[in-house]
């Protein structure tokens, strides 16, 4: 089978047409221009800000008063109180590094093609100009920690170009020839990030501040751009000029002095210039071929763990843009979901590696000093969605950066829990950043007052254990953090008139209801609030049983769990979003927060809680089949959990709509559009497709639970199920034909295919296979 590639017959004209590459830490967006090439670089620790406490003092009295007002159904007063006295400072912004530009010295190009090989993580450009063939090959190596590009001419020494580097950050660029090394030049870039930058939506460009106080100074970075050629090379402050070459190699390294979320980069930052020089020197010594071989082996070893096929790709001869355009007009291209699924996996491998920072709203790719929503960690859905596919799609180690983020949030969130709620444990609201801030930010309570992300993030810790069965991770990392999260919620629960325990007041992220004729966000409690708390308590109890822990904390969880306010169903049969029946301001709202228990949670299932599942379905149907990019991705997962593959595919097709400016869907470079670009939509759909083909919960593995009628024939190999099980699934004419399970631990599972079930006693190292006749076991 041919390798998966995105390819185009013309260069990118804008950033959302450029193609992304990365090694978890360094990101590059390549335009692929023939005469003028532009490559936008990012490094994952280049953020505005510095470590300092953003928690306001003595906020608890306002929370206490808001609770009293909410219990009296004085919702608007509660909201006004919170917005005036409880909310605070915004997060910092993810910054860009800068742009590397090439000006090629040849005539106009024809016979042009650029492509991104998803399986190898390699970008290439080829074209003809002045009777000569030119090629450029580029990748960002994780083993070598550098960006590498090779430029070649096919007809002798006809390669001539000028290379330059610019940045919107404060920076200084100097050029130098390498002493005693012919054809070798470098640019050295010294840059500084702002001490502060407000979110873009505040409309304040003057908010980009560079402080001269050492304790307030931002992150510094050093980049070395090294060129080696068989032609002539000269360097100055304007850049590097290469002439009369058959080949030129460009190495780009970058390091920053960021040393931790609680460490001043200026006063205690780590060395960064010399490590960067060492990265580039080692790369140059190895040379292009060895670097490419090591990179390809590394990237391929991750990507090829999962293979997904829907028969023959009949339109592979068309450019990616043409396929998207035709699909928008005709809806005819059954293989595009395969590309969307695997592109999500490609982005995960490129943007989240052990040792890197977690993926933010744009992964690691950003072109602005004030990016949309600060390109921060929005943890009321978006950051979590980024990591939905990692375990099911066989990329478990890529979850490590998220775990590191959660560790920092747990530390910072303890101060927030104390000052805002007078509670033990830790809490985080709807935003965080490189500095792990956990306070409620400014703006509307509809988004800023939401102390539930800490509970949601704890789910990812327990999910890691469920998939990997790593007991030491559960004991040393997951359970201690989960316990701190649960301690907070135990402390803030209050009793309502029916004797139930609830977290009051609550919001349902970013959604509002009509109260006394006004749009209102703050209610007594909300379905998502109580579902996250219930899930966390149950997971803590499960962890305690696994680890053999029986203590007062476990007993308090059991006692509280039985009294938690239950989910409710409205008169029209829908699952209620708030504690009472309230008219939504926006019935088709993008957030589906009250359906958290269906997905990503498992508290609502068709087989276990059919009444709640029916109510969730009615709510989902009412929300509709439109939405922003990431909302479409969430809906794919929800319909998959309801085992309705045709509706899930309907959402995928909507996601694949070729997005113009200010439209949801898929951008020309396959990035998801909110609008504008947010990367979570990509990961949401990847996760959703995996859920359509395999689900695992409560000791069961569901095979093809939401296979759409259109996917008549296909296969997927390498998906992971809970219990450290790998599955290969094959089907024809819409029916399961073969399944293979690979067990890494002794695991008893029940296979479920439609109404058929089969118990399998798996043994570590064993491969179990079953050929299925007539669609049943």
Q: Can you walk me through this structure?
A:
This protein is about 30% helix and about 25% strand. The protein is of the alpha+beta class and about 775 residues long. It has a nine-stranded antiparallel β-sheet. Strands 2-3-4-5-10-15-14 form a seven-stranded antiparallel β-sheet. A hairpin with a 5-residue loop joins strand 3 and strand 4. The longest helix is centred in the middle third of the chain and has 22 residues. About 55% of the residues are buried.
Mean pLDDT rating: 96
Strand content: 15-25%
Q: List low-confidence stretches.
A: none
State the helix count: 19
Q: Give the distance, in angstroms, between the N- and C-terminal Cα atoms.
A: 30 Å
Largest sheet, in brief, is: 9 strands, antiparallel
Helix % is 25-40%
Nearest-angstrom radius of gyration?
27 Å
**Which strand order do you get reading across the main beta sheet?**
1-6-7-8-9-16-13-12-11
The helix-and-strand class reads: alpha+beta
Name its key features.
777 residues; alpha+beta; nine-stranded antiparallel β-sheet; seven-stranded antiparallel β-sheet; 19 helices; 33 strands
Summarize this structure briefly.
31% of the residues lie in helices and 25% in strands. The strands form eight sheets. The protein has a nine-stranded antiparallel beta sheet. A seven-stranded antiparallel beta sheet has the order 2-3-4-5-10-15-14. Strands 17-28-29-30-33 form a five-stranded antiparallel beta sheet, with helices on one face.
């Amino acid at each position: 089978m041919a390798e998966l590639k995105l390819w185009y017959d013309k260069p990118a004209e804008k950033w959302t047409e450029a193609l992304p590459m990365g090694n978890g830490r360094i990101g590059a967006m390549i335009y692929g221009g023939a005469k003028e090439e532009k490559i936008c670089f990012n490094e994952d620790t280049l953020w505005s800000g510095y470590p300092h406490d953003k928690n306001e003092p003595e906020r608890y009295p306002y929370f206490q008063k808001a609770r009293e007002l909410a219990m009296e159904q004085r919702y608007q007063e509660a909201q006004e109180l919170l917005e005036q006295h409880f909310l605070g400072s915004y997060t910092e912004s993810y910054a860009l590094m800068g742009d590397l530009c090439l000006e090629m010295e040849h005539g106009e190009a024809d016979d042009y093609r650029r492509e991104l090989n998803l399986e190898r993580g390699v970008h290439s450009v080829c074209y003809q100009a002045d009777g000569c063939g030119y090629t450029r090959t580029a990748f960002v190596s994780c083993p070598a920690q550098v960006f590498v590009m090779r430029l070649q001419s096919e007809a002798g020494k006809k390669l001539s170009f000028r290379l330059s580097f610019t940045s919107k950050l404060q920076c200084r660029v100097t050029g130098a020839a390498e002493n005693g090394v012919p054809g070798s030049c470098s640019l050295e870039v010294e840059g500084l990030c702002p001490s502060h930058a407000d979110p873009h939506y505040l409309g304040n460009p003057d908010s980009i501040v560079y402080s001269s106080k050492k304790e307030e100074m931002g992150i510094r970075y050093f980049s070395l751009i090294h060129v080696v050629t068989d032609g002539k090379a000269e360097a100055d402050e304007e850049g590097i000029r290469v002439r009369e070459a058959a080949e030129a190699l460009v190495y780009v390294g970058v390091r920053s002095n960021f040393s931790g979320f609680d460490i001043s980069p200026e006063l205690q930052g780590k060395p960064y210039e010399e490590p960067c020089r060492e990265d580039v020197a080692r790369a140059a010594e190895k040379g292009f071929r060895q670097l490419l071989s090591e990179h390809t082996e590394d990237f391929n070893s991750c990507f090829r763990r999962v293979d997904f096929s829907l028969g023959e790709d009949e339109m592979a001869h068309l450019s990616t843009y043409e396929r998207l355009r035709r699909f928008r007009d005709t809806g005819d291209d059954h293989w595009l979901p395969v590309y969307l699924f695997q592109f999500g996996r490609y982005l995960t491998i490129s943007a989240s590696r052990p040792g890197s920072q977690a993926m933010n709203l744009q992964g690691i790719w950003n072109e602005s000093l004030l990016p949309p929503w600060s390109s921060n960690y929005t943890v009321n859905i978006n950051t979590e969605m980024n990591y939905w596919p990692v375990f099911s799609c066989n990329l478990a180690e890529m979850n490590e950066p998220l775990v590191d983020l959660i560790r920092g949030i747990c530390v910072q969130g303890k101060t927030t829990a104390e000052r805002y709620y007078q509670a033990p444990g830790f809490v985080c609201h709807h935003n965080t950043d490189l500095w792990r801030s956990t306070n409620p930010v400014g703006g509307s309570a509809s988004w800023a007052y939401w102390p539930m992300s800490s509970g949601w993030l704890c789910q990812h810790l327990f999910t890691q254990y469920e998939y990997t069965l790593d007991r030491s991770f559960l004991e040393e990392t997951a359970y201690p953090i989960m316990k701190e999260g649960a301690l907070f919620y135990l402390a803030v629960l209050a009793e309502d008139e029916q004797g139930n325990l609830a977290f009051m007041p609550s919001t349902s992220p970013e959604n509002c209801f009509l109260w006394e004729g006004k749009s209102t966000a703050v209610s007594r409690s909300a379905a998502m609030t109580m579902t996250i708390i219930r899930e966390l308590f149950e997971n803590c109890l499960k962890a305690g049983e696994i680890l053999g822990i029986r203590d007062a904390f476990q007993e308090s969880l059991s006692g509280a769990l039985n009294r938690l306010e239950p989910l409710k169903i409205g008169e029209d049969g829908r699952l209620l979003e708030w504690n009472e029946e309230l008219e939504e301001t926006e019935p088709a709202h993008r957030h589906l927060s009250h359906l958290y228990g269906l997905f990503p949670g498992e508290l609502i299932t068709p087989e276990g809680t059919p009444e709640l599942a029916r109510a969730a379905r009615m709510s989902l149907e009412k929300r509709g089949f439109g939405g922003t990019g990431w909302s479409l991705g969430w809906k794919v997962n929800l319909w998959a959990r309801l085992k309705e593959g045709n509706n899930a595919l309907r959402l995928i097709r909507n996601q694949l709509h070729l997005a113009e400016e200010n439209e949801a869907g898929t951008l020309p470079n396959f990035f998801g559009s909110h609008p504008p670009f947010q990367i979570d939509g990509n990961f949401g759909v990847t996760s959703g497709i995996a859920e359509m083909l395999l689900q695992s919960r409560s000791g069961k593995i569901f095979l093809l639970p939401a296979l759409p009628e259109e996917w008549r024939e296909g296969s997927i190999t390498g998906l992971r199920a809970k219990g450290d099980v790998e599955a290969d699934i094959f089907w024809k004419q819409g029916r399961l034909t073969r399944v293979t399970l690979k067990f890494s631990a002794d695991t008893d599972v029940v296979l479920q295919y439609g109404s058929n079930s089969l118990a399998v006693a798996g043994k570590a190292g064993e491969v179990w296979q079953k050929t299925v006749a007539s669609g049943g076991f």
